[in-house]
Structures are given as C-alpha cells and as structure tokens.
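User: Sequence in, structure out. Go.
Assistant: Echoing your sequence, followed by the structure tokens.
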Amino acid sequence: MEEMQPIKGLKKIALMKDILSRGDFGERNVLLFSIGINTAYRISDLLHLKLSDVLEIYRQKVRVKSRLKMKEQKTEKNNSVIFTKKL
C-alpha cells in the first residue's frame, strides 16, 4: 500500500477543488472534499452522509445545521464538529 500525503497549500487545495468540480457530480465532489479537509472525517464516513445529516427545516426554511454529528465507521466513536461559516 502506498503512503498518502496530505494536500498542503491553498493553491493545491484550489486546484483540487477545480478538478473535482468537473463532471456530472462536481458540486457534490467539491462539497465532500471541503467537508473532509475542514472536519478531518474519512471519506468512508462522508460517503454515508444524508441531506438530513447536514440540513434542517427551521421556520419553513431549509438551512445548514450548525453541527455535524456522526459515528465514525473505523473507530466507532461518536464525533461532532461545528460547521464554519466558510464551509
């Protein structure tokens, strides 16, 4: 198995987002990548996300939840992270 290295530097992150944005599922791919680099969740955990994990209906409007709560698949730990405004 090859050793993986983190993507470092804002230019490389922007390039990765540009590459991921291409294709039919570009917006989804960029969102998963952005959540991953901002929360440190594994992709195996992020692929199980549902809209209801991220969005809520409040006063008849759809909005992003303030916190993402998830049980990590590999460690089986319950984890919670705050969504930043930027994310």
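User: And one key feature?
Assistant: The helical segments are 10-21, 26-39, 43-46, 51-54.
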